[in-house]
Design goal:
Number of strands: 0
Radius of gyration: 15 Å
Largest sheet: none
């Protein structure tokens, strides 16, 4: 990562997706596709394009889309696409760390909301803001270290 143009594109894209996810509880499918295309073009321009990252991103996206299908879209398809974009941007190992940290932050926030507000089990919480927070944590952490 290391503070590149690719990271800025990813952060802006995640922020835009977070905003739409909070307001409408949906993510337009084209937005993650545009982010992915921009990242691939930046990688190709810099000469650092890895087909391995793209294959890992496609496999991760298909895996999470299978989970979304099994849970009747409790975990949305837009979230799945963004996970694939994060894995494409960061690589499989680093991207998996970002995604798992996002899951952890989301679980902690959901537990806190359930404990404080006493919301029902059917309460829907947007996931993309937590992915954005996780990516930001890793982005700032890598810039500091």
């Amino acid at each position: 990562m290391r503070g590149s143009v690719k990271d800025a594109v990813m952060l802006l894209g995640l922020a835009a997706c977070s905003f739409t996810d909070i307001r409408t509880r949906t993510i337009p499918v084209l937005l993650p596709c545009f982010i992915a295309a921009a990242i691939v073009m930046i990688d190709a321009w810099k000469g650092s394009f890895h087909i391995y990252y793209c294959i890992a991103a496609v496999l991760a996206t298909l895996f999470f889309m299978g989970i979304a299908k099994l849970t009747k879209e409790a975990f949305g398809y837009g979230d799945c696409l963004l996970i694939g974009v994060i894995i494409e941007c960061c690589g499989p190992v680093y991207g998996s760390s970002v995604v798992l940290t996002g899951f952890f932050i989301c679980a902690a926030a959901a537990g806190a909301v359930m404990a404080v507000k006493r919301v029902p089990k059917t309460y829907e919480m947007p996931f993309v803001p937590f992915l954005c927070a996780s990516y930001t944590i890793f982005f700032i952490g890598e810039m500091i270290l």
